[in-house]
Amino acid sequence: NFMLTQPHSVSESPGKTVTISCTRSSGSIASNYVQWYQQRPGSSPTTVIYEDNQRPSGVPDRFSGSIDSSSNSASLTISGLKTEDEADYYCQSYDSSNQNVVFGGGTKLTVL
Amino acid sequence: EVQLVQSGAEVKKPGATVKISCKVSGYTFTDYYMHWVQQAPGKGLEWMGLVDPEDGETIYAEKFQGRVTITADTSTDTAYMELSSLRSEDTAVYYCATRGLSYWGQGTLVTVSS
Hints:
Chain A is mainly beta. Chain A has strands at residues 4-5, 9-12, 18-24, 35-39, 46-49, 63-68, 73-78, 87-95, 100-103, 107-111. Chain A starts with a strand and ends with a strand.
C-alpha cells in the first residue's frame, strides 16, 4: 500500500503559474498512471489530467501534468491562472497490489 | 451523453443501513467498472470500492470492508452502494464514478444523526 501526499494549500496571483505536487510514499510513481481532478465547492470532481499528462477535451492547455521519477512525484501545473481555477485539486493513482484506487489528500488552490 | 444520476439525500440514525443508487445512461453499463467515493464535510476524496457490472465482482477498500456492499443491476443499468452500521463519521457525500473515474454522479448526501 502507498499514500499520495499533496500540500494542503497553495496560492498565487492571477496570470501567474502554480505547480501542485503529489508524492508517492512507496513504489515508483511511474508504475501506475496519475490522474488529477478539479473540484469546485458544491460540485463533483472533474478530470483535468489523465494518464500522467493527457488533457481531456475541453480542458484548457494551461493545465499540464508530469511525473518525476527522481522525486517520485507527479505535478499539476496551471499557467496563466484565472480566478475560475480556484478549487480543490486531487491526484489519484492505482495500487496494483490490491487493485485499490488511491487519492491524494487534496490541495486548495487560492487565486488572489 | 454519459450520465450518472444518483438517488436523493438520506437521513439515517446510527446503526442503520443506507442504500444509494446510481443510474447510468449514454454508454454500455457492463463495459466499465463502477466506483464509489466518500467525501466527508470539508474533507478529501476516499475510495470505497468498485463493482464490475459484467460479472458482479467487487473490490473494497480495507477501511470499509465488512460494512459496504456494492452491486450492479444490468437489467436497469443501475449500481448500488449499501453501507451498514452507520455512525456519525459516515456523514458524507457519496459519489459513483465510472470510465476510469472520468464520469461522476452528482453526489448523494447521507446524514447520520440521532
